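Q: My labmate handed me this sequence with no annotations at all. I'd like to see what the chain might look like in three dimensions before we decide whether it's worth expressing. Could you predict it?
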Amino acid sequence: MANEQQRQFLPDLCTAQAVLVVVVVAQLLAIVTTLTAALYSSFSFERLALSSLFIQWVALTSAALLCGVRATINRMPLGWAGAVVVMVVVIDAFCFSLLAGLALEWMVDGFWLDQRVWLREALISAAIAAIIGGMVMRYFYVQEQLRQKGEAELQARIQALQSRIRPHFLFNSMNIIASLISVDPDAAEQAVEDLSRLFRASLAESGSLVTLEQELSLVRRYIRIEQLRMGERLRVEWDIQLETEKVMIPQLTLQPLVENALYHGIQPLAEGGVLKIAVWPEGDRVRILISNPKPPGTSGHQGNRMALENISLRLQALYGAAASVQVTPTAERYDVLLTYPLKGE
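A: Here is what I predict for the chain of 345 residues:
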């Protein structure tokens, strides 16, 4: 688990967004160094142009080198990973400083620097690169520590959510099974099988991915058990418009939402109600809607907040900003809409 967490330490510097950030930061650094030099001599656009060219080359080549060895660096311990990144930047800055001196001597007539001056300039550039690289690595290190802490808290909450089986649901299920044994043995056997599958899912590894078909099968088993207790008061409408075997979803994502829909939406109503479960594709994303009637005089699901927050965090951890959980309470119904990319694992 530690190695999996460390793989995100160094971000992907090959993306267009990352390259843009590198270019902007490098240009800002060139401007700062030129303005600093202007404290001791007059401001020169030529100096700004040369500083920009040098710093941009160092920044972009360093990013390209780090992009190539990113997978290896992210498998290292955090301390070693930071040291390797700083070393790459320092060596790159040192080599480019020497090359810049040679290029200036070759291009500019009468320009000449003693080799000791070249070495001094290169060492100064390397020292500046080490300071800036160290600061950036410190930022990445803190970000990684915060990310690992957030993941640990999320895993604990996911485990708590998966391990939570309502005591009254368990007792009611066992009582129903006991009453069915002599009257309808087949129904009692089916209820025992459904209950065992629910417990097996709750004991599975937290964060594990299953097909959407497997998750919906678990939901169907849960609903079958509840229908034994609620009878005709619980009615379900299914609207599945895609191949659920080809879509992945974190295990126990839908069952807690259905559980809350029954306990806070349908159970308080004497006449019961209709639970609607719809799944459909929209562009490159899948949308899952769970809708239930809302009892009058209530503002929403009082016990639904932990499940909604955990599910939202789990989807965002896997799919980032492309995933969302939207809650739309109206006067008569309570809708929860899940959206995330249509990509298999």
